[in-house]
Amino acid sequence: MKSTYFLLLILLTLSCKREVSLIENVYGKPVFLSSTKVDIPIDSVTINSYDRLSTYIHNNDDYILAYNYMTHALDNFNVNKQTVSHIELMSEGPDGINEILGFHAHSADSVWIYSTNIISLIDSTGRVKERINIPSLNDGVPLIMTNFSICTSKLFYNSDRNSLFFLTLSVRNEKDVFFVTEFSLPDYSTKTYPVNTIAEKDFRNDYGWKQAPNVTYTNKTVIYNFPVESNIYVIDLESGKTSIYGGKSRYTSNEVSKLGPNFDMSGGEKHINENVHFFDILHDPLRNTYYRLHLDGIEYNAQTDFRTTYLSKDLYLMVYNEKFEVINETKLDSRKYNYFNCWGMLSKGLFIAKDNELNNDTDFECYQIDIFNIK
After folding, report:
1. Taking the C-alpha atoms of 323, 328, 332 and 338 in order, what is their torsion angle to the nearest 10 degrees?
2. What is the distance between the alpha carbons of residues 338 and 283, in angstroms, rounded to a whole number?
3. Does the pTM exceed 0.85?
4. Of all helices (H) and strands (E), which one includes residue 36?
5. Which candidate among 54, 125, 170, 236 keeps its CA 20 to 30 Å from the CA of 312?
């Protein structure tokens, strides 16, 4: 009888610990979402699906700058005028950019590009104005990528601090340790900010391909979250303090199941499809709100093509106010939108590309997006 009692006590304790690892939501005044369709005609060298992009405003027009891997160029979409132009990149020479792992468009004439251990600043013609070799970073390496199965971690230029920000990965005692590096441009000095979860997690060994945090930025904060859980973490750059907020969905699971380290390709695909995946937090500075997309899990069948199954998953959009209170959660149309990081913030709201391969209404002569806004 005593052994039964202690077993129940242990199970209850473990259950409580799991619950505490996810912060509960606080709800604000609800808002409604509206959407606007924009179709931008494209030319023969423009593609309509991108996984690396950035946005900026020039002369009051919204621009989407997207990396075209087929032409090694930046396709520059004017959303207001519905036109596209191109910034052709050189692969070699003094203006050479041999790869693009991520980039940040600060303005039309100031685009920061990350290649392996090198950050280049180019102008609107593709000319390199500055090139920085990233020094040793406390035994860490920059981790800048937009990978649908691993994480979304972006490069950012902070104009208030004249610094570049990026996620950094270090391996210590056979565990992955993450921190954000602030790289000061005036003197090349660095400062770091720890990136942790509320409950310790072994990302390398427990969660399949979901092995790193999503990280985005404002001039005042670092905002991060993990694909495997619903929590939202915000670092205040002045105080260094980290605040944690609940980001739970009403409709989906809010935590990913564990997968041991010794999995094969089929096991990894099954884990990706059957579990929820939380993407990066996007800040709307004009309305001081935040958006986050996440995918629900779906039943996995090894006989069905992985990509078809993945692109059939349900996509949800959550909106938070300036206090990270939940003010909207909406299930978006299925099999319509791009699930490979083809979204971003415009002055008009959050845009998402509509080039899901299972979307029967895709117009391949246009770059098609929906822009979501609160009202």
Report:
1. -10
2. 19
3. yes
4. strand 33-41
5. 54
- The position carrying tokens 């099999």 is 335
8: tokens are: 């129940």
Spatial distance between the Cα atoms of 228 and 57, rounded to a whole number of angstroms: 33
CA-wise closest residue to 169 among 203, 196, 210, 139: 139
Kindly state the tokens that stand for 291. Answer: 């958006």
Question: What's the pLDDT at 192?
Answer: 95
For 98, the token pair is: 């041999």
Note the pLDDT of residue 20: 55
The C-alpha atoms of residue 119 and residue 97 are separated, in whole angstroms, by 10
- Cβ neighbors of 182 (< 8 A, separation 6 or more) are 158, 161, 163, 164, 165, 190, 191, 192, 193, 237
The C-alpha atoms of residue 111 and residue 44 are separated, in whole angstroms, by 25
Closest to 229 in 3D by CA, of 243, 208, 210, 216: 210
Instruction: Give the residues of the chain that fall short of pLDDT 50.
Output: 1-19
| Residue 199: strand, helix, or coil | coil
- H or E element in which residue 370 lies: strand 366-374
CA gap 69, 52 in Å, rounded: 9
C-alpha 54 chain-centroid distance: 11
Q: Which helix (H) or strand (E) holds 11?
A: helix 2-20
State what percent of residues in the chain have pLDDT above 90: 87
Per-residue confidence (pLDDT) for residue 9, from 0 to 100: 36
- 């270090």: which residue's tokens? 170
CA 3 distance to own-chain centroid = 47
CB 126 within 8 A of CB 88: yes
Q: What is the CA radius of gyration of the chain?
A: 21
Q: CA–CA distance from 281 to each of 85, 106, 163, 293 (Å)?
A: 28, 19, 21, 8
Spatial separation of the C-alpha atoms in residues 228 and 246, rounded to whole Å: 14
Q: How many CB atoms lie within 10 A of CB 293?
A: 22
Cβ(230)–Cβ(246) under 8 Å? yes
pLDDT of residue 173: 79
Specify whether the CB–CB gap between 368 and 309 falls below 8 A.
no
Please tell me the distance from the alpha carbon of residue 31 to that of residue 239, in angstroms, as a whole number. Answer: 31
* DSSP-assigned letter for residue 261: S
Would you call 86 exposed, middle or buried from its count of C-beta atoms within 10 A (0-12, 13-18, 19+)?
middle
Cβ(349)–Cβ(284) under 8 Å? yes
